[in-house]
Design goal:
By secondary structure, the protein is of the alpha+beta class. It has two domains: 55 residues, no CATH class; 174 residues, Beta Polymerase, domain 2. The strands form three sheets. Strands 3, 4, 5, 6, 7 and 8 form a six-stranded mixed sheet that branches. Strands 1-2 form a two-stranded antiparallel ribbon. The longest helix has 17 residues.
């Protein structure tokens, strides 16, 4: 509760809530967790808690149209640069499961298919793409605090994250959630979501299961991604962009 009061370490707070929820559910007292969660929400006073921070907004109370307009603009710009882009992570989850951006979320995730065919070359191409984005004004340099994820220009305070994807020996790698568990034919050719026709993986459900686990169809605002394990798996790529 102290981290909630001080608005500090949001990802740790979300993780703590997830563990507390699991503990209460396994002990047969889920109502105790929901009572505590209600206290947390009351203290936040309308702010949306996510892994990204204690924000004043979420997609639940936002007009989604400007967000989709910005998404389409970024996808088209990258397409003109010769890259395929698809909806990724939470944004993909929203359009597939909910038919919209996830209500409790507040950022957008995209992935770009690099031309590299291994992690070392992917790292070099990723850095070159970052320079291109910066030169063309497509990189939010103030918000981009590392080289493994790029921040594209935001809209109405909504951050737009770009993640790298590459194909090696017909296996798909998408940092940080898919490490060769998908075949190239399960990603490409990209298909289009029913919501706005945006590009998505051919087998979007498999990618979502790899990212969020088998229970991805059940909304879980306290989901915590296992970053430590992911960074270990993608160590070669990460060392190349460090």
């Amino acid at each position: 509760m102290m981290r909630v009061m001080t608005k500090s370490r949001p990802a740790n707070t979300v993780g703590t809530l997830q563990r507390l929820k699991s503990l209460r559910e396994s002990g047969g007292t889920p109502e105790l967790f929901y009572q505590f969660e209600a206290r947390v929400k009351d203290h936040l006073g309308g702010r949306a808690l996510s892994n990204h921070g204690y924000d004043k907004f979420s997609f639940e109370e936002m007009d989604h149209q400007p967000v989709w307009f910005q998404i389409n603009s970024h996808i088209e710009t990258l397409k003109q640069a010769g890259y395929q882009v698809f909806l990724n992570s939470g944004t993909l989850l929203g359009v597939i499961r909910d038919g919209q951006l996830i209500a409790h979320d507040n950022d957008v995730d995209l992935a770009v298919v690099l031309k590299a065919q291994n992690a070392i070359d992917a790292a070099a191409e990723w850095l070159a793409l970052g320079s291109l984005l910066a030169d063309t004004g497509m990189l939010d340099e103030e918000q981009t605090d590392g080289q493994e994820i790029y921040k594209l220009p935001a809209v109405n305070g909504v951050q737009i994250d770009l993640f790298p994807c590459w194909i090696q020996d017909s296996r798909v790698f998408v940092y940080p959630h898919t490490f060769g568990e998908m075949d190239e034919a399960e990603l490409l050719p990209l298909t289009h979501c029913k919501l706005h026709g945006n590009p998505i993986p051919k087998n979007a459900e498999k990618m979502l299961a790899l990212n969020y686990g088998g229970g991805w169809k059940n909304p879980d605002p306290h989901f915590v991604f296992q970053w430590r394990a992911a960074k270990h798996r993608f160590a070669t790529f990460l060392s190349g962009v460090a």
